[in-house]
Write a structure and sequence with these properties.
With 222 residues, this protein is mainly alpha-helical. It contains five helices and three strands. It has two domains: 173 residues, no CATH class; 44 residues, no CATH class. The longest helix is centred in the middle third of the chain and has 96 residues. The relative contact order is 0.08.
Length: 222
């Protein structure tokens, strides 16, 4: 749409050029009408692309010059009408150029903002991926530590069981001592006691055999 309106503006400029440059082919009245029509076309183009908002001063000046051109044409002042119409066209061109420049700037700013938004979105996605990778690594480290702790606990339990078994075997292999006391009554009322130690090997069992002390008293009649 914008290119179409600019094309119309170029056609209007060509019409002004032809109207001014060909005095032999047309009278002043026709040239004034052509110049006014071209100025009107350019001002219409400026309004179409929003020059009244983007370039309000130049647009207003162009419309004012066009009004003067029409007034001069009505009064029959054809030369002044042509001059005013040419001025209106030039002001309209200025308004169109300013509006187009501002639109280009706005478009460039919008594109830059879109690029910045896309870059920010990509940075957020990268940060999220990095956080996810870090969380996965931390979870893997935690799993490894838990597995190492379980292995250490299993090793400690095995060492404790081996120590208990060794202690049991050592206790079972220790010899048991049995002490027997024999008391002998001699004639004349004198008693004599004799202690005899008998060492017996303990028979391997699940639990160490208890140590039993037996006292035997023998009395001999006088």
């Amino acid at each position: 749409m914008l290119y179409r309106t600019l094309f119309v503006s170029l056609l209007a400029s060509s019409a002004i050029g032809l109207a001014v440059a060909s005095p032999a082919q047309a009278g002043k009245g026709d040239r004034a009408d052509a110049a006014i029509a071209a100025a009107e076309a350019k001002i219409h183009t400026a309004d179409t692309i929003g020059a009244g908002v983007e370039a309000p001063s130049a647009t207003a000046d162009a419309k004012a010059a066009l009004a003067i051109a029409k007034e001069n044409r009505i009064r029959g002042e054809k030369t002044m009408a042509i001059s005013a119409a040419i001025k209106a066209s030039a002001l309209a061109d200025t308004a169109i150029g300013q509006a187009q420049q501002r639109k280009d700037e706005q478009m460039a700013a919008a594109q830059a903002a879109e690029r910045d938004r896309a870059l920010a979105e990509r940075d957020r996605a990268d940060a999220a991926q990095n956080q996810a990778a870090l969380a996965q690594q931390q979870a893997a480290d935690a799993n490894n530590r838990a597995a190492a702790a379980q292995q250490a606990a299993a090793t400690s339990a095995a060492d404790a069981a081996a120590a208990r078994n060794a202690a049991t075997l050592a206790a079972q292999s220790q010899p048991a001592q049995v002490e027997t006391t024999v008391t002998t009554q001699q004639r004349g009322g004198v008693a004599r006691s004799t202690k005899t130690k008998v060492v017996k090997r303990a028979v391997p069992a699940r639990a160490p055999a208890p140590v039993t002390t037996t006292t035997t008293q023998v009395t001999t009649a006088p």
